[in-house]
Design brief:
The chain has helices at 14-17, 25-30, 51-61, 81-105, 113-122, 126-143, 147-177, 187-193, 198-206. By secondary structure, the protein is mainly α. It has two domains: 24-67, no CATH class; 81-206, Orthogonal Bundle (Ribonucleotide Reductase, subunit A).
């Protein structure tokens, strides 16, 4: 007669148990979270031939960019959602304070018209660049082979969205003072055709 094996309960998640120390908050909430990597042949544990499964198999699993253990990657700063929000809350408070000061002091009405025209040419079209960066990092968050990489990309997506939002906010404010300089209406043309932007446009569109 054989005796059933007695299983000793683990003190932490199995993928963290080998470290023989209490896992950090970062390790608990960031590592080995991608269920789509558990079964390479059926990333979603469904029909392996439906389009999204095929996409992941083709563009992530069969990528020429390879590493023996993607899950070994760690963010040196060990940023998690909680600490990311704490950090960015302080930065956003500072930025909002600056924007409020601009408005209270009538900042835009004090700008020289040639400088405002320069802002319309080389500043406000940046929201197209920031949106492209946002899309690129969001794509990486979706396609990364490890959750620790996806997390970094997700925080970068949020950063890019804030840059985009701030630029759009200033674009609207500038349009109220300089209605005839194309703020809020000419950025796409300047992004697509303006000489200052073509290097950036080529880079992000090819990426």
């Amino acid at each position: 007669m054989t005796h059933p094996e007695v299983l000793t309960p683990l003190k932490t998640w199995s993928h963290l148990a080998a470290r023989r120390r209490k896992p950090s908050e970062y390790e608990i909430v960031s590592t080995n979270l991608h269920y789509t990597t558990d079964n390479p042949d059926a990333p979603f544990e469904l029909d392996p031939n439906f389009e999204m499964a095929q996409w992941l198999k083709r563009n992530r699993n069969a990528s020429p960019l390879r590493h023996p253990d993607w899950n070994a990657f760690r963010d040196p700063d060990e940023i998690v959602y909680r600490t990311y929000n704490l950090l960015q809350d302080g930065q956003e408070t500072y930025v909002y304070g600056l924007l409020d000061q601009f408005s209270t002091r009538g900042h835009d009405s004090q700008l020289a018209r040639p400088w405002a025209a320069s802002l319309a040419r080389v500043y406000t079209p940046a929201r197209f660049l920031f949106h492209a960066l946002q899309m690129g990092s969001a794509y990486l968050a979706q396609m990364a082979p490890a959750s620790t990489i996806s997390n970094c990309a997700a925080y970068q997506t949020a950063d890019s969205l804030r840059w985009l939002t701030h630029t759009a906010y200033r674009t609207k404010e500038l349009s109220l003072t300089f209605a005839d300089l194309g703020f809020g209406s000419d950025e796409r043309r300047r992004w697509e055709l303006g000489p200052p932007w073509q290097g950036w446009r080529k880079l992000v569109e090819q990426a």
